[in-house]
């Protein structure tokens, strides 16, 4: 069991670490993408501002050789003609995207017919002295001095006052973006394992603390199993959580098990006591009959045998009920069952008066319900002064069977105890006049197995309520 709890802690720690790892990797990836996009966006904006500044100078008519270009190390700028000639370039700018820009070719005199302007082929018409509102962004490389690096380029078109188009291409370095992304990535690679170790350790400790009451319950259950002492109970942590409810449920189960075992012990003891008397009486009569046949009380021996047979049948039925035997699902006319049972009692001490029974059907075992009715009638005839009545009525969804006698009735404080097994009240303790104390116990057990109840009302009225079919 300790190995089991250890595995639970390991699985909990591993699961929590895995969840945190997945979440952190996803969050870190998203963070890196957002950071990279923001830095690239800043580089694009920086390059576009530089390109527009140079394009504005061109549009105002400033000569190409006098353009105020940014420092080549930070913002390499190259100005191209439509045919690709380099018109101007920043200091130390040697190449852009692998194309050399060392040669400068100032524009020639403008032809009167506008040849070479390319206006007819432009998708966007730019007037002389204007800068295009749109800028194109792209990645590339630039060689400044003897160092080649990656840049984000912004390309802006403009026309000088003469109507000649110039293409300004300015770049912003990506070194800062890569350094920032690399720093964040390194911090994540270092911090993630440390954070996972912290999460795993905290989860291990929390799980260990949470499972400590369960381990206490396990130890106590093992001790109860080893000692077979069902009076012991597991500790209840009182934390009002699932483990506390588990402990309470376990104690309730132990209480029910203890009650069941004690009831079984009492049943065995009482059954042994009840069986001993008729067996001893029958043996005595048989031994006397063997030694002195003329003294054999045959009728007494038969009565003892019948009593023993009935007691054995009662014990067998109780055993089947305790084993959880479910009654048959047969539709039974309760009024017809009453008439049939009463018709077989022609020689009883007190005749049973049957009222006008209502025709109502119930579902269950005919033999078991007949046994309940027989036990109730036997009990009523045993205690009645001169009258016993039986009747069936319907009360909503219930079929109600009432058996009533004119005897002294059951005292209020005894109305539940009489349904216990082997219980006989003081005026019915004679084994000659009373039974073994199982009839009412069997009747209530059968009633409950059929989804009904059996109670005592008004002292001497026994009421059996069963769900109507």
TrEMBL record:
<dbReference type="InterPro" id="IPR036890">
    <property type="entry name" value="HATPase_C_sf"/>
</dbReference>
<keyword id="KW-0472">Membrane</keyword>
<feature type="region of interest" description="Disordered">
    <location>
        <begin position="97"/>
        <end position="144"/>
    </location>
</feature>
<dbReference type="GO" id="GO:0005886">
    <property type="term" value="C:plasma membrane"/>
</dbReference>
<keyword id="KW-0808">Transferase</keyword>
<dbReference type="Pfam" id="PF00672">
    <property type="entry name" value="HAMP"/>
</dbReference>
<dbReference type="InterPro" id="IPR003660">
    <property type="entry name" value="HAMP_dom"/>
</dbReference>
<keyword id="KW-0812">Transmembrane</keyword>
<protein>
    <recommendedName>
        <fullName>histidine kinase</fullName>
        <ecNumber>2.7.13.3</ecNumber>
    </recommendedName>
</protein>
<dbReference type="GO" id="GO:0000155">
    <property type="term" value="F:phosphorelay sensor kinase activity"/>
</dbReference>
<dbReference type="InterPro" id="IPR003661">
    <property type="entry name" value="HisK_dim/P_dom"/>
</dbReference>
<feature type="compositionally biased region" description="Basic and acidic residues">
    <location>
        <begin position="124"/>
        <end position="137"/>
    </location>
</feature>
<feature type="domain" description="Histidine kinase">
    <location>
        <begin position="270"/>
        <end position="469"/>
    </location>
</feature>
<dbReference type="Pfam" id="PF00512">
    <property type="entry name" value="HisKA"/>
</dbReference>
<feature type="domain" description="HAMP">
    <location>
        <begin position="208"/>
        <end position="262"/>
    </location>
</feature>
<keyword id="KW-0902">Two-component regulatory system</keyword>
<dbReference type="InterPro" id="IPR036097">
    <property type="entry name" value="HisK_dim/P_sf"/>
</dbReference>
<dbReference type="Pfam" id="PF02518">
    <property type="entry name" value="HATPase_c"/>
</dbReference>
<dbReference type="InterPro" id="IPR005467">
    <property type="entry name" value="His_kinase_dom"/>
</dbReference>
<feature type="compositionally biased region" description="Basic and acidic residues">
    <location>
        <begin position="97"/>
        <end position="106"/>
    </location>
</feature>
<keyword id="KW-0418">Kinase</keyword>
<keyword id="KW-1133">Transmembrane helix</keyword>
<keyword id="KW-0597">Phosphoprotein</keyword>
<dbReference type="InterPro" id="IPR003594">
    <property type="entry name" value="HATPase_dom"/>
</dbReference>
<feature type="transmembrane region" description="Helical">
    <location>
        <begin position="12"/>
        <end position="35"/>
    </location>
</feature>
<dbReference type="InterPro" id="IPR050428">
    <property type="entry name" value="TCS_sensor_his_kinase"/>
</dbReference>
<dbReference type="InterPro" id="IPR004358">
    <property type="entry name" value="Sig_transdc_His_kin-like_C"/>
</dbReference>
């Amino acid at each position: 069991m300790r190995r089991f709890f250890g595995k639970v802690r390991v699985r909990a720690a591993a699961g929590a670490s895995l969840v945190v790892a997945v979440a952190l990797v996803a969050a870190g990836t998203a963070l890196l993408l957002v950071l990279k996009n923001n830095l690239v966006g800043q580089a694009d904006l920086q390059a576009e501002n530089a390109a527009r500044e140079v394009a504005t100078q061109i549009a105002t008519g400033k000569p190409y050789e006098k353009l105020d270009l940014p420092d080549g190390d930070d913002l390499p700028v190259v100005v191209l003609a439509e045919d690709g000639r380099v018109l101007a370039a920043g200091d130390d700018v040697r190449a852009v995207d692998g194309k050399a820009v060392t040669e400068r070719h100032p524009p020639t005199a403008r032809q009167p017919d506008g040849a070479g302007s390319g206006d007819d082929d432009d998708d966007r018409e730019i007037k002389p002295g204007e800068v295009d509102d749109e800028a194109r962004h792209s990645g590339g490389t630039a060689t400044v001095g003897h160092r080649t690096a990656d840049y984000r380029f912004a390309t802006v078109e403009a026309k000088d006052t003469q109507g000649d188009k110039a293409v300004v291409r300015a770049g912003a370095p990506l070194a800062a973006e890569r350094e920032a992304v690399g720093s964040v990535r390194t911090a994540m690679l270092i911090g993630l394992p440390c954070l996972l170790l912290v999460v795993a350790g905290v989860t291990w400790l929390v799980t260990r603390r949470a499972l400590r009451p369960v381990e206490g319950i396990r130890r106590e259950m093992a001790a109860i199993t080893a000692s077979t002492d069902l009076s012991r109970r597991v500790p209840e942590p009182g934390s009002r959580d699932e483990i506390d409810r588990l402990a309470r449920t376990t104690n309730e189960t132990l209480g029910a098990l203890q009650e069941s075992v004690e009831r079984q012990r009492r049943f065995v003891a009482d059954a042994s006591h009840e069986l001993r008397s008729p067996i001893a009486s029958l043996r005595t009569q048989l031994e006397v009959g063997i030694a002195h046949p003329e003294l054999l009380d045959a009728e007494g021996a038969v009565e003892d045998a019948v009593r023993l047979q009935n007691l054995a049948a009662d014990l067998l039925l109780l055993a089947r009920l305790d084993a959880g035997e479910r009654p048959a699902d047969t539709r039974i006319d309760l009024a017809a069952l009453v008439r049939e049972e009463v018709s077989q009692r022609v020689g009883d001490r007190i005749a049973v008066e049957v009222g006008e029974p209502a025709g109502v059907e119930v579902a269950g075992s005919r033999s078991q319900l007949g046994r309940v009715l027989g036990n109730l009638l036997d009990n009523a005839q045993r205690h009645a002064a001169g009258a016993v009545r039986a009747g069936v009525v319907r009360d909503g969804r219930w079929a109600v069977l009432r058996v009533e006698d004119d005897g002294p009735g059951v005292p209020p404080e005894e109305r539940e105890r009489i349904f216990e097994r082997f219980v006989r009240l003081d005026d019915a303790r004679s084994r000659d006049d009373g039974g073994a104390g199982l009839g009412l116990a069997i009747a209530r057990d059968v009633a409950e197995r059929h989804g009904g109840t059996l109670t005592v009302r008004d002292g001497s009225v026994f009421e059996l309520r069963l769900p109507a079919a």
